[in-house]
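Case study 2.
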Amino acid sequence: MSTPPKPDLKDIRRLLTAAFSGTALEWYDYFLYGTAAALVFNKLFFPELDPTVGTLASFVTFAVGFVARPIGAAVFGHIGDRYGRKVSLIITVVMMGATTGCIGLLPTYDTIGLWAPALLSLLRFLQGISVGGEWSGAMLLTLEHTPKEKHGSYSSVPQLGSPVGTLLSSGAFAIVGMLPDDAFYSWGWRLPFLVAFPLLGFALYLRMHIEESPVFRAMLEDAERNGPKPAPLVEAFRRTWGRMIVGVGAAFLGVGGFFLMSTFIISYGTDDLGIDKQTMLNATVIGSVVEIVVLVLAGRLADRIGAWRVCALGAAVTMVAAFPAFWLVDTKETGLVYLGVSLGIGALSIPYAPIGAVVSGMFPEEFRYSAVAMSYNLAGVLSGFVPLMATSLTSAADGASWGAALLLIAIAACTVAGSFGAGTILRRRGAALSSPAQNVEVPA
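Prediction:
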């Protein structure tokens, strides 16, 4: 990644605030659906199904959002590479806020029948398209404004939007979850979704007042002199398909593992273990606080030893922590449940902190948005089916957690491999860029 001009510290703070705030809103909206999928949608949108089948159907609609993410990556990657990172981010935040608020207005199955799950799936699909362009744009805008030697810690700032979004969404459901069941299932569950409308106005204000990336401004000047480059996504696949596969592996744990230890764990705790829903929601809230601390520390560590090494280290720690985390939850003791969820989320947050610096650094500037977005969101497609897979595994094992723990270990192993592959690519790319022959091509 090219080193941008040294910006003013005040400008960096403004940029980081905008990137974090918008990302927090996006993830609040997105994770809100995951919590509702575990607690509400199976009862209100799939009431005619067996409870286990209803939960599976609810997680299928959850997965729809992840299937849509590569479409969003293609659309917003093209916009970000051709028309600007800022333009793309403004569109994504408006799209996410509007669709999430509309979920809070949806009639249920008892009111409109099959149209209810159909409209729910459509809105989830639109959420997925929005998220497909959001993360990569926020990450690139951050890294392309800031010094390369601080990319480890700066890349963790947009990542803080994930735990804060989870904290807000789980906290919102924890509050409305204190309502009597009749009130909660009739109107209380809608309130966290409707909050997305005013939050959208705040995030949009911040996004409108940030500066465009200096890297993109240089790309525009080059396009004016030499004409536009080929279609960014086509070039990304043609020239760097191998690096994109590596990026998928490196990013897999931070996305898929998280949904295993948040969305799935809520459903597993309430449905299979009979733990009170308030306890499981509180566990994810505590886990989110732990994640915030881990992200800050892991980001700083990445500045010292390298982002890809932190990713590999965090994935290895997760492999060791997988079974203990689930064993603690299986005790059904409130304190140990909190500890188990925090252990799982804390471990997988280590590689999540610097993953933006890892993936972004592997690709050339002219199609970086498209390549980063597609790599990250292909990992997201796989991740969207993780709660569904974990639910199927525990159901086949008569409610035992060992299948879900093994799934977490397999996901972490993919990230170990992807992190080492990324390290090799980053070293080769760094050597090529520092060579006198600046046109050295790094293999895909």
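The first helix runs from residue 9 to 39.
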